């Protein structure tokens, strides 16, 4: 059994953070309306297809919402969740592109070729053009569809753009991260460009506006110009709270007592985003949409603990297959929910929103066979059992193979050096290298070296390539049962083999110099012509030269954290 080194926190800490009461919440500051539409009785079936607002935040940690016991103020999210249904068995993917692709397609990333890493700015890659997207299905059902925020699903050809993939309008960025004010994004030294787009044009005139405010204002304008008698779908993919850590000063001032600088800036960004959600909710009420609306809130992956985020008490962070990387904040708020004001432990995955929302819209799913998602609305609205019993977190054949994994360790049916993870029922299996595995409480994140006394570290398992947890009884992944239950390990490995047979080749092409913003007027945007063929077919090796070329500030930080991680690993027993 693992031996743990506790240098500042113990399991007793869970009590102080309120995790024995998952329904804990703070009072809300959202203004009440004169007549609360959530108290009205509704007919068994919706009179009209509901308006759908899907809000996705970026890199928000599992701990970083008020009702999970956070020290960060999120009164709007707390109240919306308290009056709706909190999803406390909700899963996403560990990084940006995979979560977004699975939301938009309803398919695991092994079925779209996006199972490795993210889509990078200079890669001739995008969400496969043969995939029928969620907004396209909603358009078929008569919806007006709009996207505001971060795309990160590729843009090398115009056919890849949001307005070609089902959205009537788009305001946002195409790449993975930009400056919150200038909208500049550098993909290496001298490879910088502007990234804010209105439709298919560069939105130069919007520079200088803080993105969280800009996106909320755009949602309000869309609602003001549309008729609530006609169904609308708005996908709000906030840039917040991804790095760079930037926020208006008045929000930072609220957290001036926080000693940790990164946590202070991060907290300010979360609260600013919370107020943006408040403004969106207010606009839904003001313009007559709210009574017939469904608001879905979701994070895209776990928090980055070295950039202010916290997933406590879960293990791991963004980019890992530990619970801290894949268990997300999620809730649904709607006057149309039959059983409101409760916490749901139904198993839900981000792929489930595709069939769930299309079904709510009375759309047709018969022409999109092979979805990996399920319609979970009865589980959310009525408290029925979830139709989902397992989740393939991923199989990534290109990720660095674990040094100590082998086919022998996988009973001759699976090479345990391959990074993969799956949950079946209450069991979760991980193989290969699952990623950074420590538990990091809040307020211990970037004030090196003094803050590391609060880090809780695992002191064995360095030569392992298989882990098994009863995730229902042990959600913090503290007790590896792989040696005690080899029968369960074998069963879950068999499921991995099953899924792997259905996987398509990885789409991860080499970078193309034609993508340089200098060739596109100084902005990131499509560079390939419509006649250019798909250059990505087949399994590609990772971009080995990338780290050698990048010398930008963020790259130096990544190098620092890699060295720090290596040092911590060497200090383990």
Write a brief caption for the model:
It comes from Neopipo cinnamomea. The chain is an alpha/beta fold.
Fold topology:
Elements lengths: L3 E3 L6 H4 L34 E7 L17 H9 L1 E3 L2 E2 L4 H10 L28 H7 L3 E7 L18 E5 L10 E3 L5 E3 L2 E2 L2 E2 L8 H15 L6 E6 L11 H5 L7 H26 L6 E7 L23 H4 L3 E4 L8 E3 L3 E2 L3 H8 L16 H6 L7 E7 L22 E6 L2 E5 L24 E3 L7 E5 L15 H15 L45 H4 L3 H18 L3
Helix pairs in contact: 5-7
Cofactor: Ca(2+)
Keywords: Calcium, Glycoprotein, Hydrolase, Metal-binding
GO molecular function: metal ion binding; sulfuric ester hydrolase activity
Folded structure, characterized:
Keywords: Calcium, Glycoprotein, Hydrolase, Metal-binding. InterPro entries: Alkaline_phosphatase_core_sf (IPR017850), ARSB (IPR047115), Sulfatase_CS (IPR024607), Sulfatase_N (IPR000917). This is ARSI Arylsulfatase. Its cofactor is Ca(2+). The protein is an alpha/beta fold and 573 residues long. The chain has a domain at 51-388: 3-Layer(aba) Sandwich (Alkaline Phosphatase, subunit A), CATH 3.40.720.10. It contains 13 helices and 20 strands. The chain has helices at 13-16, 75-83, 96-105, 134-140, 211-225, 249-253, 261-286, 323-326, 353-360, 377-382, 486-500, 546-549, 553-570, and strands at residues 4-6, 51-57, 85-87, 90-91, 144-150, 169-173, 184-186, 192-194, 197-198, 201-202, 232-237, 293-299, 330-333, 342-344, 348-349, 390-396, 419-424, 427-431, 456-458, 466-470. A hairpin with a 2-residue loop joins strand 17 and strand 18 (427-431). It is globular. The two termini are 14 Å apart. The relative contact order is 0.17.
């Amino acid at each position: 059994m693992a031996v743990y080194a506790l240098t500042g926190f113990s399991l007793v800490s869970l009590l102080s953070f309120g995790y024995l009461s998952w329904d804990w919440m703070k009072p809300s500051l959202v203004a009440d309306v004169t007549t609360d539409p959530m108290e009205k009785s509704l007919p068994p079936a919706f009179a009209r297809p509901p308006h759908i607002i899907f809000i996705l935040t970026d890199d928000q940690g599992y701990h970083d919402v008020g009702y999970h016991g956070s020290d960060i103020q999120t009164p709007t999210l707390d109240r919306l969740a308290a009056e709706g249904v909190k999803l406390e068995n909700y899963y996403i993917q560990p990084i940006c592109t995979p979560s977004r692709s699975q939301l938009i397609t309803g398919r695991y990333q092994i079925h779209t070729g996006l199972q490795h890493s993210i889509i990078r700015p200079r890669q001739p890659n995008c969400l496969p053009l043969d995939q029928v997207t969620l907004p396209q299905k909603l358009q078929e059902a008569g919806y007006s569809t709009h996207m505001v925020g971060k795309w990160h699903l590729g843009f090398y050809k115009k056919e890849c753009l949001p307005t070609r993939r089902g959205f009537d309008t788009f305001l946002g960025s195409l790449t993975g991260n930009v400056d919150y004010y200038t909208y500049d994004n550098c993909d290496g030294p001298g490879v910088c460009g502007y990234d804010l787009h209105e439709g298919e044009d560069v939105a130069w005139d919007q520079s200088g506006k803080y993105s969280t405010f800009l996106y909320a204002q755009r949602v309000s304008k869309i609602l003001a110009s549309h008729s609530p008698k006609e169904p609308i779908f708005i996908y709000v993919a906030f840039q917040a709270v991804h790095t760079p850590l930037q926020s208006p000063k008045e929000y930072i001032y609220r957290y001036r007592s926080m000693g940790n600088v990164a946590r202070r800036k991060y907290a300010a960004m979360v609260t600013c985003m919370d107020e943006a959600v408040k403004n969106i909710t207010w606009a839904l009420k003001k313009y007559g949409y709210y009574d017939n609306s469904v608001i879905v809130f979701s994070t895209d992956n776990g928090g980055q603990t070295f950039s202010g985020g916290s997933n406590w008490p879960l293990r791991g962070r963004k980019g890992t297959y530990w619970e801290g990387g894949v268990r997300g904040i999620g809730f649904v708020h709607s006057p149309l929910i039959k059983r409101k004001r409760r916490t749901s432990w139904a198993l839900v995955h981000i792929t489930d929103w595709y069939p769930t929302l299309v079904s709510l819209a009375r759309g047709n799913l018969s022409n999109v066979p092979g979805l990996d998602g399920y319609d979970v609305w009865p589980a959310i609205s009525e408290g029925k059992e979830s139709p989902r019993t397992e989740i393939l977190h991923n199989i990534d054949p290109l990720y660095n193979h674990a040094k100590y994994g082998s086919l022998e360790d996988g009973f001759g049916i699976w090479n345990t050096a391959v990074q993969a993870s799956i949950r079946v029922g209450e069991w979760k299996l991980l193989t290969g290298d699952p990623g950074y595995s420590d538990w990091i409480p809040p307020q211990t994140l970037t004030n090196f070296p003094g803050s590391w006394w609060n880090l809780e570290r695992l002191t064995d398992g360095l030569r392992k390539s298989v882990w098994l947890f009863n995730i229902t009884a042990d959600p913090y992944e503290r007790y590896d049962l792989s040696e005690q239950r080899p029968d369960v390990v074998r069963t879950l490995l068999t499921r991995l083999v099953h899924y792997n047979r259905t996987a398509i080749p990885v789409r991860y092409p080499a970078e193309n110099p034609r993508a340089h913003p200098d060739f596109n007027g100084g902005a990131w945007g499509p560079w390939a012509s419509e006649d250019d063929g798909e250059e990505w077919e087949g399994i590609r090796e990772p971009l080995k030269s990338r780290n050698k070329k990048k010398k930008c500030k963020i790259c130096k930080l990544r190098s620092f954290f890699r060295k720090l991680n290596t040092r911590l690993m060497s200090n383990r027993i």
